[in-house]
């Protein structure tokens, strides 16, 4: 385990792309502060340059460095770590070349021990996206994105993720915009929509943005 974390962390620090298991689907990560690596992720996926990448951190505390937070800390901890991406106002600390077209950034803290250990082993945030060619289905095993292997520095096989037969498993994280005080808007329903909305509405009194 420690060797796998160390191998993945050193590949990331050398500017490489690493395939990783998360709590939702397989992902590809690079160092978010490394502009060349961020460009490599876009070309690997054939991804539209105007589609943002999320950042991944190991702990809620680290989120405050890269985002301006306007919700209670307890709310962050009710949703993270978990299968949710929170969209917040980005801070000056974040690489200007990461999503330069928006003042917001999505933050993931996957509820997956390997991912959290890897994020903690790296100096700054990871940029994280699903391990698949853009517009193709997300992947639940490493064999499903075999065509990407030659362009990856390291592939971490965490075994199958979730229930392979269930279409819900491929939905990825629920993406919710919390950048407007007192409100939330769902950007992608994802796999955790109902419990996420329940926490935001019932416990914190946030209202859906129309």
TrEMBL record:
GO terms for cellular component: mitochondrion; plasma membrane. Its EC number is 2.7.7.87. The keyword Cell membrane applies. One of its GO terms (biological process) is regulation of translational fidelity. It comes from the Eukaryota. GO terms for molecular function: double-stranded RNA binding; L-threonylcarbamoyladenylate synthase; tRNA binding. SUPFAM superfamilies: YrdC/RibB. Transmembrane segments: none annotated. It is a peripheral membrane protein. Gene3D superfamilies: DHBP synthase (3.90.870.10). Keywords: Cell membrane, Cytoplasm, Membrane, Mitochondrion, Transferase, Transit peptide. InterPro entries: DHBP_synth_RibB-like_a/b_dom (IPR017945), Sua5-like_dom (IPR006070), TC-AMP_synthase_SUA5 (IPR050156). Residues 2-192 form the YrdC-like domain. It is found in: Cell membrane; Cytoplasm; Mitochondrion. It catalyses: L-threonine + hydrogencarbonate + ATP = L-threonylcarbamoyladenylate + diphosphate + H2O. Cytoplasmic and mitochondrial threonylcarbamoyl-AMP synthase required for the formation of a threonylcarbamoyl group on adenosine at position 37 (t(6)A37) in tRNAs that read codons beginning with adenine. Catalyzes the conversion of L-threonine, HCO(3)(-)/CO(2) and ATP to give threonylcarbamoyl-AMP (TC-AMP) as the acyladenylate intermediate, with the release of diphosphate. Participates in t(6)A37 formation in cytoplasmic and mitochondrial tRNAs. May regulate the activity of some transporters. Belongs to the SUA5 family. Interacts with RSC1A1. This is Threonylcarbamoyl-AMP synthase.
């Amino acid at each position: 385990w420690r060797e796998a974390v160390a191998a993945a962390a050193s590949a990331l620090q050398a500017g490489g792309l690493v395939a990783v298991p998360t709590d939702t689907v397989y992902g590809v990560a690079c160092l978010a502060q490394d502009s060349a690596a961020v460009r490599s992720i876009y070309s690997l996926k054939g991804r539209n340059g105007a589609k943002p990448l999320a950042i991944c951190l190991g702990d809620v505390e680290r989120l405050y460095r890269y985002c301006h937070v306007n919700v209670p800390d307890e709310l962050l901890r009710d949703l993270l770590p978990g299968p949710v991406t929170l969209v917040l106002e980005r801070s000056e600390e974040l690489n200007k070349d990461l999503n330069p077209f928006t003042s917001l950034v999505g933050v993931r803290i996957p509820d997956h021990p390997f991912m959290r250990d890897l994020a903690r082993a790296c100096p700054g945030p990871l940029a994280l996206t699903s391990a698949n060619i853009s517009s193709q289905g997300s992947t639940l095993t490493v064999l499903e994105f075999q065509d990407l292997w030659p362009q990856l520095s390291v592939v971490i096989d965490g075994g199958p993720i979730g229930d392979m037969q269930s279409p819900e498993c491929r939905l990825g994280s629920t993406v919710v915009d919390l950048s407007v005080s007192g409100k939330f808007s769902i950007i992608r329903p994802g796999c955790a929509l109902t419990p996420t909305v329940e926490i935001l509405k019932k416990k914190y009194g946030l209202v859906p943005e129309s």
